[in-house]
Design goal:
4-stranded antiparallel sheet; Umud Fragment, subunit A
């Protein structure tokens, strides 16, 4: 009996160690709680980010420990258009508190970024936009409410094409017209795909320019998606969005 208990304890210990190693070095799971990345990521999506893609920083650890080391080791820069998980100041403004965010990288070090009449300009040139119809947004936080939002394909200078939503007429969104931002060395400029409902680098507070040290990794694949809350067992099955299971994040 004693040997069996010891054997089970050792098994649980190594399972825990392996899980920590995987989350520290290889992949980290995330949950999408907000609508800032519709239509790419929806509320209730679960995805994994690869932590080895850009090297490692104190923010790569399951528990942030800035005193261990600073900067990044084995560091590489992301490419324009990637959907990135990163750490930043908490949205509620608590001193020293941080949150994890998921946004799309549109600005690299040295780039000049500006929104003019709702159109993204990179180094003085507007990105290409193509109207692709309407997107029916069903937000699980607002049961029974369906929004019809204009959808566009945005083409970045390096050829990356991705969808965005623009609910308000161009020029009428709160972040449709900004100053020209010059991205500092070692930093990146992040924007949500749901342009009129994303707090991101355009507002500068709380996110602003994102330091390379705070990058966690690019989103790789959706592995689970549901409209149900944990306290709604009656919807656990009916709320599953099977069409989003094991879907690559583009």
């Amino acid at each position: 009996m004693f040997k069996k208990a010891v054997h089970e304890f050792v098994g649980l210990f190594w399972a825990f160690v392996i899980a920590i190693v995987i989350q520290t070095i290889l992949f980290q799971p995330f949950y999408v709680p907000s609508g800032s990345m519709y239509p790419t990521l929806e509320v209730g999506d679960f995805f994994v980010a690869s932590k080895f893609s850009y090297g490692y920083s104190p923010y790569s650890l399951p528990w942030y420990h800035p005193e261990i080391f600073s900067g990044r080791i084995f560091g590489q820069d992301p490419t324009r258009g990637q959907v990135l998980a990163f750490n930043g100041p908490s949205v509620d403004g608590r001193p020293g508190a941080t949150d994890d965010y998921i946004k799309r990288c549109v600005g690299l070090p040295g780039d000049r970024i500006q929104m003019r009449q709702g159109i993204l300009h990179i180094n003085g040139e507007p990105v290409k936009l193509e109207r692709t119809g309407d997107y029916l947004m069903v937000d699980p936080r607002k049961p029974g409410q369906v929004k019809v939002i204009p959808q566009y394909l945005e083409t970045l200078p390096n050829g990356v094409v991705h969808p965005i939503l623009k609910e308000y007429p161009f020029g009428e969104g709160s972040l449709d017209n900004t100053q020209e931002f010059v991205v500092p060395l070692g930093h990146f400029f992040m924007v949500g795909d749901n342009r009129d409902h994303s707090s991101d680098s355009r507002a500068m507070n709380p996110i602003g320019f994102v330091p390379a040290e705070k990058l966690i990794g690019p989103a790789q694949v959706l592995w689970f998606s549901t409209e149900a809350k944990w306290y709604e067992p009656q919807r656990w099955l009916s709320g599953l969005r099977f069409s989003r299971f094991f879907k690559w994040v583009r």
